[in-house]
Specification:
The chain is of the alpha/beta class. It contains eleven helices and 20 strands. Helices cover 26% and strands 22% of the residues. The two termini are 31 Å apart. The structure holds pyridoxal-5'-phosphate.
């Protein structure tokens, strides 16, 4: 798709790379002396990893995390030799050679993944870097306590693997301080005692804000870099990164009692004025926002009426001046009046899901880093 092609695209997605850089610096300064990595999985949470990664490297990030080998392969050419590209999900059997070839570092989550990486090191006749993930209580990825004990008892299981980091992941950090995170921290500190020389990493974005005790040697923020609130309560210290603007493609007056949209679920007993915008669930605007979410026109909130269609949404603009709400008028879906977290709350989900679903049909515009800002 051509960039800034508003005649052919349904909406314009503006991604502020300067805000991403500022968000990185905010976390970096808060977390120091711990190092600040950057999580860019899922195409940098939908915002474009190839555009975002160079910005984060410029700000001093040396540790870049993706989820899958295919994502690492797409980004490997951007990573300089002083930085590392890590694969959070580790390797599927048979992926080891491709991982070694691009110099990526797998997060080894099971004894099977460790055995596969050890075999690749032997096959290549050299040491390969690897991260060990321990399960500190989330019961998702990572080595269990007995598996950690087995590794500690038999160092040969890690022959040829240079353990460059030990890590785990917090399940409840976004709820703020509490017993779940404290318990995970204690378990993490116990489980990683077997590798006293290896740097340690536990915190995601939310974890950084739980305090110094959670920051260890490296923090792994994702959502906060992209402007999402790291914690569920207490305001958002991050700069907003995305803006999504569309425009009205048709206006219509609907008489009292008439149904509106699929299923005719939008209905009112008074005369309404409806505006159609060309964004729908195929563009990642959740269908559950039918008769529930909103958009903004010239700073005025306009509710979504009726169901969200695949390619369009209907807005009730009855209360907006007709000189303002008219054919072609700009409509804000994300921006100063409606944050990603606001939309997520309306949809009963989290900012992560709204960002990662942002549509492929949008025209994209990247605002550059302001070079006057210190890296
Ligand atoms: C996605 C992910 C992160 C980043 O989490 P945010 O909540 O977006 O900061 C960090 N670590 C792991 C293991 C992850 O899967």
């Amino acid at each position: 798709m051509r960039v800034m092609d508003l005649e052919s695209a349904p909406a314009l997605l503006t991604i502020d790379l300067d805000a991403i850089a500022a968000n990185y610096r905010l976390i970096r300064d808060l977390a120091a002396p711990a190092r600040t990595a950057a999580v860019v999985k899922a195409d940098a949470y939908g915002l474009g990893a190839r555009q975002v990664v160079p910005v984060l490297l410029d700000q001093g990030a040396r540790d870049i995390f993706v989820a899958h080998l295919c994502e690492a392969q797409d980004l490997a050419d951007l990573i300089p030799s002083h930085a590392r590209l890590y694969i959070l999900g580790g390797l599927a059997r048979g992926g080891e050679a491709a991982c070694a070839e691009i110099g990526a570092v797998p997060v080894l989550n099971s004894l099977g993944q460790i055995a596969g990486w050890r075999a690749m090191a032997q096959h290549l006749g050299r040491t390969l870097p690897g991260v060990l993930q321990v399960d500190s209580g989330m019961n998702r990825l990572g080595l269990s306590a007995p598996e950690v004990a087995a590794l500690a008892d038999d160092p040969d299981l890690l022959a040829g693997i240079d353990v460059v980091l030990v890590m785990s992941h917090l399940a409840c950090a976004d709820d703020g301080p509490g017993p779940a995170s404290e318990g995970q921290r204690a378990a993490f500190d116990t489980l990683t005692a077997a590798w006293p020389a290896a740097p340690r990493a536990l915190a995601n974005s939310a974890g950084v804000f739980l305090g110094e005790g959670f920051r260890h040697d490296l923090v792994r923020p994702g959502i906060a870099l992209y402007g999402g609130a790291p914690l569920n309560r207490g305001g958002n210290p991050m700069r907003p990164v995305v803006r999504l603007d569309t425009h009205i493609v048709q206006m219509r007056d609907v008489p009292p009692g008439a149904g509106i949209g699929y299923g005719l679920t939008g209905a009112a007993d008074t005369q309404r004025c409806i505006a159609v915008i060309p964004v729908g669930y195929a563009d990642g605007w959740p269908r559950c926002l039918g008769n529930r979410g909103s958009a903004w026109i010239a700073g005025v909130r306009v509710p979504i009426v009726g169901r969200v269609s695949m390619d369009s949404i209907l807005l009730d603009v009855t209360d907006v001046d007709r000189a303002v709400a008219c054919d072609g008028a700009v409509v804000e879906l994300l921006g100063p009046h409606q944050s990603v977290d606001d939309v997520a709350a309306d949809a009963g989900t989290i900012s992560y899901e709204i960002l990662t679903q942002l549509g492929a049909r949008y025209a994209r515009r990247y605002l550059p880093v302001d070079e006057g800002n210190a890296a």
